[in-house]
Specification:
A 4-stranded mixed β-sheet has the order 2-1-3-4, covered by helices on one side. With 165 residues, it is α+β, with helices and mostly antiparallel strands. It has 6 helices and 4 strands; from the N terminus they run βαβαββαααα. The protein is flat and about 50 Å long. It folds into 2 domains: 78 residues, Glutaredoxin (3-Layer(aba) Sandwich), CATH 3.40.30; 64 residues. It starts with a strand and ends in an 8-residue tail after the last helix. α4 packs antiparallel against α6. The protein binds glutathione. Glutathione binds next to loops. The site of glutathione has 9 residues, from loops.
């Protein structure tokens, strides 16, 4: 049975489900996209909470095996379909793996941690017909710019955040 990915364009194509879709595409694993209408809070209804108790997107359903949390889903896909597409996990050395874990933590905390508050104060409000919180957006952008300057520094020395591979 083909994998099912519960997603929602309400959060934009660059949302967490987009990351999973990108990994599935890289690994050349076919999947069925199941849109959840977040505009009318379908991600908070009993049916979705059964899959994702925090009421968030994305969720993967692999023949009844339900998995949430974007990075856990990505790792699952990459390891389960190791023979398909390019290898997306570093290694074999402990150091390469550790740098990969470091990059993932940086992405969750420093990148997502800065981007999500901007989204919540701007596009998310707009899509709900509310006024944008300009002060929060400006404060968020300031933090994001500082973080991206660090990314620039890292990427001036190596090809990718986790190294050169
Ligand atoms: N830690 C979760 C975060 C997922 C997340 O924040 N998804 C957003 C959409 S991109 C969402 O569902 N937001 C609604 C909410 O948090 O109530 C993951 O990595 O999958």
């Amino acid at each position: 049975m083909v994998l099912k990915l519960y997603s929602s364009l309400f959060f934009g194509p660059g949302g967490h489900a987009g990351v999973v879709a990108l990994v599935l595409a890289e690994k050349q694993v076919p999947f069925e996209d199941i849109p959840v209408n977040a505009e009318v809070y379908k991600h908070k209804d009993a049916e979705h909470l059964e899959r994702q108790p925090f009421g968030q997107i994305p969720v993967l359903d692999d023949n009844g095996f339900i998995l949430y949390e974007t990075r856990a889903i990505c790792r699952y896909i990459v390891e389960k379909y190791s023979e398909k597409g390019p290898s997306l996990l570093p290694g074999p050395s402990f150091e390469e793996r550790a740098l990969f874990e470091q990059a993932i933590s940086v992405e969750i905390i420093n990148f997502q941690g800065a981007v999500v508050p901007i989204f919540v104060a701007s596009l998310k409000k707009k899509r709900r017909g509310l006024a944008m919180d300009v002060a929060a957006v400006e404060a968020g952008v300031e933090i994001l710019v500082q973080r991206l300057e660090v990314y620039e520094k890292i990427l001036s020395r190596q090809k990718f955040v986790a190294g050169d591979e």
